[in-house]
Design brief:
This protein is 72% helix and 4% strand. The chain is built from three helices and two strands; from the N terminus they run H-E-E-H-H. It has a two-stranded antiparallel ribbon with strand order 1-2.
């Protein structure tokens, strides 16, 4: 599971850097005016990477043979184990306070 997310992170980092170069070449910028919250020229459209991330994630799930339901089930089991561990720690802290 963590390998999948690491691969996605690397792919998205490369995609973001590539987009910055494309946006710079194609002059996709926002020049500030009196209503702007920024004072320098900034690149626009970097948020397109978020939608790309969902597509990359779905493709990697299909390639690995997982369904979205299986992925969520795995995350649910991980969170359940983590919550059980934190409950045990809380009980131990309460016992030590007595």
């Amino acid at each position: 599971m963590w390998l999948t997310y690491s691969v996605i992170a690397v792919i998205l980092l490369i995609a973001e850097l590539a987009y910055f170069r494309i946006a710079d070449k194609c002059n996709i910028i926002d020049k500030p005016n009196e209503r702007s919250s920024h004072s320098t020229i900034v690149l626009r459209g970097g948020g397109v990477i978020f939608s790309l991330s969902m597509i990359v994630w779905a493709i990697l799930m299909v390639v690995q043979g997982n369904t979205i339901a299986q992925e969520y089930e795995e995350l649910f089991r991980y969170n359940a184990r983590r919550n059980a561990h934190s409950e045990k720690m809380k009980l131990m802290r309460d016992m030590l306070k007595l």
